[in-house]
Write a structure and sequence with these properties.
Elements: E1 5-11, E2 14-19, E3 25-27, E4 29-30, E5 35-37, E6 56-58, H1 70-76, E7 87-91, E8 103-106, H2 109-112, H3 116-129, E9 135-137, H4 147-153, E10 157-158, H5 161-168, E11 171-173, E12 178-180, H6 209-214, H7 218-242, H8 245-252, H9 257-267, H10 270-276, E13 285-287, H11 296-307, E14 317-321, H12 332-341, E15 346-351, E16 355-358, E17 370-372, H13 380-396, E18 402-404, H14 410-419, E19 426-428, H15 437-446, H16 455-471, H17 475-479, E20 485-488, E21 495-502, E22 508-516, E23 521-524, H18 526-534, E24 541-544, E25 552-554, E26 558-561, E27 570-575, E28 578-584, H19 588-593, E29 598-607
Helix pairs in contact: 3-9, 5-7, 11-13, 12-15, 13-14
Length: 608
Amino acid sequence: MTDYFEIHGRDGAARLGELRLSDPLTTPALVDDSIDDAGSRWTDERGIPKGYREILTVLPHRAFPAGTDERVQETFAVDYPDVDYPSAAVVTAETAADYGADAYILSNAPGFVGHASAFREQIIAAREALPADTALYLSGVATPRNAATLVYAGVDLLDAKKARVRGLEGFYLTSEGEYFLEDLDELPCNCPACQGKRLDVDPDEAETNAARAAAFDRGDCADHNEYALKSELATVRRRIRDGRLRDYIEGQARHDQWLTAAFREFDGQYGYIEERTPVIRDTELSAATEDTLRRVEIQRFAERVTGRYRNRFENPLVLVPCSATKPYSESQSHSQFHDAIQYRAHHASMTSPIGVVPMELELTYPAQHYDSVVTGRWSEDEKSFVARVLRRYLERNEYPRVIAHVPDGGYRDIAERVASEVDVEFEYTVEEHPTTTESIANLMSTLDGELKYGKRERQHNVVKAIADYQFGPGAGDELFADVELKTKSRYPKLQVRDENGEDDDGGEGAQLATMVPQYGVLSFTLDGARVWDDSDAPTKRVEIDGFVPHGSVLAPGVVDADEDIRVGDEVVVEGPKAFAVGRAQMFGSEMVESTRGEAVQVRHVEEK
């Protein structure tokens, strides 16, 4: 149980938290001035320290360097006491367990930081063995260049030991790299350690105190390195708050090969990152490199579109290129496509890095939240990914024919590649560019004779498609199988009602859900939550203790929660005294393990 560390925000495995000392410390952060080491038990059988509320106390420990035999670790492992002040325990991935501490220090960190696969293996093993609401501390390894990647992997606490040592050795550190102090022509920084200093003065040869004071020496270099590390962590905290740390990592980690390898190693651990990544958020996803294709948000969207979504229209499919404007339907080009199609076909957009976006899901995160680099040239990785998604999409959904209204180049290459692999006819309608008069005329004439679908069918299919995507395969039909579905308001602010039901005031048409345009998902009322709970659609449930939540459910009140719950998921909350519906603020196992923090943001609640 942790009493002195609490998580306030998440961005994948990275967390924004608070070390609750008398002077609280916002994490990720350096703890050099906020920690006291009670010492090693290798040399002395130390007693339990007194401890103070003002500081994080490292309990007496036995540290094991990298490569220590597991039998040795097991034999000499320390059984840490339960104390009533902020405490840290020293462990390795092999000895990590719940010792009741607020933070855990990996003693073998210097042995694996710098080796991508070992780094990934040790961090994931430690994080999965330790309580979800405790801080992970790596000592003696942080530099301005690697700090962001350490935090991205799940590290909360660092220190400036290595950065200062490198400074005393004559190495000037930045977020991009390090330089020999003697090789610098000028100081590329304006931190307090660099201000007013000069590189062209040798303090040992300076004739006056003023000249010696102006000389930038190795002590100043150590101070600068610490300032640079603090500045980098401030940037990282800002990125976590914005939900954009991964965007930063893709560029910043390029400055060191092992850092690039490290975040790619974590991309290969989909389960670890996916569990910790929100399913929705209102922030831009920057698709600037091909590494973006491996992001959880991209892979998750493609997986759900090809494994959950089901087309309910009987019309042909028109494939169109994406647009820079999001959502696509608000762009000038898609307005022209819409005018040509005139509800005679179902259409889906082809795009890198998302893959395939059916028109019903154009608002669903991250389809309306990404921005990509537009050059007109597709890499082979991009074409392979989008082709794979399109092929799986067409294998799952039946269409009488496919009209590829896409330009030459990457789009056409993908369409032709997939056309040769699926059993459906492809037709091509573009002359030079999709929006030329000839191209639009070709698209219109190709759809001659096709019947239009109506507004009611379109809106119902939007609601059911979002339900499939959000809750699981077939959820749209399961949720509304016994409901006379009625939609009110205008797209994209659709309200879903049951024509046969009664609202809370006894009127006709009980409201079940609302479409949230900001994220492109459904938000349930209590009536909708009951329909969900009673249906055969997969329900994400949080069991709480005997209280009535108002505003939120805190983690200590959670008795159990489904493991597949993710941050941002719609959840049913139920206990002996209440039935509620809301949005998850933690992933499922974290709700159960945590002793602090908000687990669910409650929207509607009813006392039993």
